Amino acid sequence: MALSLEVRKALPGFTLDVAWEAGDEVVTLFGPSGAGKTLTLQCLAGLVRPDSGRIVVNGTVFFDGALGVDVPTQRRRLGYVFQGYALFPHLNVRDNVAYGLRHLTTSTRRERTREVLERLGLADLASRRPRELSGGQQQRVALGRALAPDPALILLDEPLSALDLPLRQALRDDLRAVLAEWRTAAVLVTHDFTEAYRLGDRIVVYEAGRVIQTAPRAELLWQPASERVAGIVGIRNVLHGTVLKATPDRIQFSWRGQLLEAVNSPTRSYLPAPERPLAFFIRPEYVRLIRKDRGSPDPGHHMNLMQGRVVGEADFGTTWTLYVRLDAPGAPAQGEYDLEIEVPRLVYEILDLARDRQWQLSIHRGSIHVLPSS
Amino acid sequence: MDFFPLWLSLKVSVTATILTVATGLPLAWVLALKRFPGRDLAEAVVVLPLVLPPTVLGYYLLVLISRQGAIGRVLDAAGIELAFTWRAAVLAAWVGSSALFIKAAQAGFEAVDRRLEQAALTLGRSQWSVFWSITLPLASRAVMAGTVLAFCRALGDFGITLMVAGSIPGLTQTTPLAIYDLVQSNRMAEANTLSLIAVATVALLLMGIGRLARLRF
């Protein structure tokens, strides 16, 4: 499967202008609501006609504004799982799944329908109407209906948003397994980063009708292209310092009166001039608390040492988030605090963090991620 | 007692209702789903027969279908006589009842979730196939209700029928016209019987609508 898409569409008060490509994989379109993700799917499926652009799937031109090509929806043969599923309420599960198999002979159609129902574990529900199904079952039927005609590409619009949270997490992994098992390339829309990360091999980040980064999922998490991507992806502790010295493998900079050192990106090293402002981020779970019962910290092991005080905390069940204010003059970097730190519950208990508030912190230079200036 | 008016009314109303559904379904679908220039005008023309005085409507129809009229001339050339025949009564009932059907069916089509039709298209079905398998079944209650309303209206038409078909006993005199005639000639017992039958028929049909309205998917 090969997909290349370039679409412009102006609506009142909103303009979509995006271009991205995908191969044999699951691509997630991720971004806040109203960023144009669903509109992109609709253009792909031919439900909305772009003003201009070009959409090619597997060598077939679906749309070309310049050449006046616009293949109608029913001949694009893509699977589409709608938000809220859009199951046909007057048809039972079997007839919903068989709906896209009209072109087959009766016996082949019956055979294929039974196969799909069985593979998705829906065989026992075949005679039920959609309203008699749970949210999770409805999702399965919607998947089955879209997959039954064996499309080269399946489009999924917020496939999990109609579900309650515990079920949502279970079905997220379930959906991943189904997509892997059916070996179907997929484009999936979500506004939940965990979902985007868990389900997508590649993530396309949308903001206000534009694509601000396209990357394999791990790269997005560790090397966001800009501060805006970091913000949308939900990266915490995005901070601003001043460059002291940059070399291809290290960047030294000052922040809140501290001298910090970060590893420069091996793939796209970044060499800002001294005195330039610099954005960087530190993942909360990568800040180390230095144990007081183990002697003084080893400078070779403990880099970027800082002193601070826990000024706030939040209990997330299995983890605690601590808000630390550095022992440095001036206003804290993030309102009341400078750094957000995440520790497992066990660590919280062992270190007696509930009572002991004054700590020495260390951040490995590899855990400080410099963001290219945007 | 002469039961011909009842028989004629049934024939006229059934024919007119079939005509109404056949012409009204596509029109209702277009009005519900398509945006085109002149749509507001089309809506107004559809509703007009509901609000015009039946005699005015009947007068214009008569002008159109009489031998000198635009339609009458064409029919005359083809050797078809329309004015003052039972077919004119069908025309009258059709014109009088179409708006009720179209409005009901249009509302039914508008209420169907467009994403269901889109889903059907993505599954490779043509617009035509989507209409018959998704849109119409999901709007079926409204369409049935519109059909029954149109039938009742066709059964009860007086003014338009009188203008274009006249009230020729044994030829074009439908039940409402016959009842009027009977009352005029003071044959109250017969008027009573016909009226009761008319009321019973309509009441039964309306009860049928009530049942339909409670059907759910």
Provide a descriptive summary of the structure in words.
The complex is a heterodimer of chains A (374) and B (217). Chain A is of the alpha+beta class. Chain A has ten helices and 21 strands. Chain A has helices at 37-45, 73-76, 93-98, 106-119, 135-147, 165-182, 193-199, 217-222, 227-233, 345-350; strands at residues 3-11, 14-22, 26-30, 52-57, 60-64, 69-70, 79-81, 153-157, 185-190, 202-207, 210-216, 238-246, 250-255, 258-263, 277-282, 288-289, 306-315, 319-326, 339-344, 358-362, 368-371. Chain A is elongated and about 80 Å long. Chain B has 217 residues and is mainly alpha-helical. In chain B, 78% of the residues lie in helices and 0% in strands. The radius of gyration of chain B is 19 Å and the shape is globular. The mean pLDDT of chain B is 92. The A-B interface holds A 45-47, 72-80, 82, 84, 86, 88-90, 99-100, 102-103, 129, 131, 145-146, 149 and B 113, 115-116, 118-127, 129, 133-134, 137-138, 217.
Number of E strands of chain A: 21
Average pLDDT of chain B works out at 92
Number of strands of chain B: 0
Work out the radius of gyration of chain A.
Answer: 25 Å
Question: What would you call the shape of chain A?
Answer: elongated
Cα-atom radius of gyration of chain B: 19 Å
Which spans of chain B of ≥5 residues are poorly predicted at pLDDT below 50?
Answer: none
* Strand order in the largest sheet of chain A: 7-8-9-3-10-11
Task: Let me know the average pLDDT of chain A.
Answer: 92
pLDDT < 50 runs, ≥5 residues of chain A? none
Summarize the structure.
The complex is a heterodimer of chains A (about 375) and B (about 220). With about 375 residues, chain A is α+β, with helices and mostly antiparallel strands. Helix content of chain A is about 25%, strand content about 35%.
Secondary-structure map:
The complex is a heterodimer of chains A (374) and B (217).
Chain A lengths: L2 E9 L2 E9 L3 E5 L6 H9 L6 E6 L2 E5 L4 E2 L2 H4 L2 E3 L11 H6 L7 H14 L15 H13 L5 E5 L7 H18 L2 E6 L2 H7 L2 E6 L2 E7 H6 L4 H7 L4 E9 L3 E6 L2 E6 L13 E6 L5 E2 L16 E10 L3 E8 L12 E6 H6 L7 E5 L5 E4 L3
Parallel strand pairs in A: 3-9, 3-10, 7-8, 8-9
Antiparallel strand pairs in A: 1-2, 1-4, 4-5, 5-6, 10-11, 12-13, 12-15, 13-14, 15-21, 16-20, 17-18, 17-20, 18-19
Chain B lengths: L3 H30 L5 H13 L2 H12 L4 H8 L8 H25 L3 H9 L4 H12 L1 H17 L2 H7 L9 H10 L3 H27 L3
Helix pairs in contact in B: 1-5, 1-8, 1-10, 2-5, 3-9, 5-8, 5-9, 6-7, 8-11, 10-11
